[in-house]
């Protein structure tokens, strides 16, 4: 019984953490500052670098391009909910879809394909 409660609590925590992810490539200053460990100056440095040289490819790219963002710092920020790179982009798309109640076309097509239905893209 205790094991079931523990597993349920862990699943709920993981589920909540997945929807709390902040993508470094799309977040504004307020969203970045919402991550524990990122203050106003670090958020500004991230945004300035992203605006000057484009999106971050991965954690190593973020570490190289933003002063003061070493490997351990980035790992800690990722544990706090910072998402970086392609995986982060997919997570933020799902979060945005959940928040607006709309499903992105790619996600809808993938879901339809998994169910065995034909997917048709409709342009609005």
TrEMBL record:
<dbReference type="GO" id="GO:0015627">
    <property type="term" value="C:type II protein secretion system complex"/>
</dbReference>
<dbReference type="InterPro" id="IPR051675">
    <property type="entry name" value="Endo/Exo/Phosphatase_dom_1"/>
</dbReference>
<keyword id="KW-0732">Signal</keyword>
<dbReference type="Pfam" id="PF12836">
    <property type="entry name" value="HHH_3"/>
</dbReference>
<dbReference type="GO" id="GO:0015628">
    <property type="term" value="P:protein secretion by the type II secretion system"/>
</dbReference>
<dbReference type="InterPro" id="IPR010994">
    <property type="entry name" value="RuvA_2-like"/>
</dbReference>
<feature type="signal peptide">
    <location>
        <begin position="1"/>
        <end position="20"/>
    </location>
</feature>
<protein>
    <submittedName>
        <fullName>Helix-hairpin-helix domain-containing protein</fullName>
    </submittedName>
</protein>
């Amino acid at each position: 019984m205790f094991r079931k409660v523990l597993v349920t609590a862990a699943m709920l925590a993981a589920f909540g953490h997945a929807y709390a992810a902040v993508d470094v490539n799309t977040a504004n200053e307020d969203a970045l500052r919402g991550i524990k460990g990122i203050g106003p100056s670090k958020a500004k440095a991230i945004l300035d670098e992203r605006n000057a040289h484009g999106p971050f490819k991965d954690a190593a790219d973020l570490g190289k391009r933003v002063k003061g963002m070493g490997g351990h710092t980035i790992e800690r920020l990722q544990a706090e909910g910072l998402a970086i790179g392609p995986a982060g982009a997919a997570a933020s798309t799902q979060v945005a879809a959940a928040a607006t109640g709309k499903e992105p076309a790619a996600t809808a097509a993938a879901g339809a394909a998994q169910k065995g239905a034909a997917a048709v893209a409709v342009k609005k």
